[in-house]
Amino acid sequence: MVDIPGTLAVLSQAIGIVKDLREVEKGLSEGEIKARMAEMYSSLADVKMALADTQEELRAKDQEIDRLRSAFATKEKTVKERGFSLLTFEDGEPKGEPFCPVCEQKAGRYFHLSMMTGKFKCPNCKAEYGDAPVHVWERY
Q1: I want to staple 100 with a disulfide (CB 3.0 to 4.6 A). Which of 19, 119, 122, 131 is the partner?
Q2: Are 56 and 88 contained in the same domain?
Q3: Total count of domains within the chain
Q4: Could you tell me which residues are beta bridge partners of residue 128?
Q5: Are residues 88 and 64 both part of a single domain?
């Protein structure tokens, strides 16, 4: 987790160093100025790294928000039959293979079950179901 207050504190420290250098530049020796500048560069590098971490974390959160929006949109297009969620045609009739109830309930993710060796199986969590409602995908 990114420490935003800590990042702001380091940034404030760097700004304070710059202000100090501006105010007392003439009273400092060249070595003291170089030491203060090195301190400032280090602080600014810490800020840059923290901001990069923050940007990456925000990007990950945006991706999760997009995934959740998609999941909610999918849920709105489903109907329940015998405990399974299925997509629907425009008239509300179910279509295709059902979604895995385990993945839907535990993770809010939608994976269609597949028929494997006489049983329906989730390609994600590997849960098996002996019987599940199946409907056509297209109407002609």
Answers
A1: 122
A2: no
A3: 2
A4: 121
A5: no
**Distance between CA 79 and CA 88 in Å, rounded?**
7
Alpha-carbon span 56 to 86, nearest angstrom: 35
CA distances from 90 to 87, 96, 101, 114, 139 (A): 10, 14, 23, 24, 11
Q: Is the pTM for the entire model greater than 0.70?
A: no
Q: Closest by alpha carbon to 12, among 20, 1, 24, 2?
A: 20
pLDDT in tens, the chain (140 residues): 556 777 777 778 777 777 776 666 566 677 877 887 788 788 788 888 888 888 888 899 999 999 888 877 777 788 999 999 999 998 989 999 999 999 999 988 899 999 888 899 999 999 999 889 999 999 88
Token readout for 100 is: 């895995």
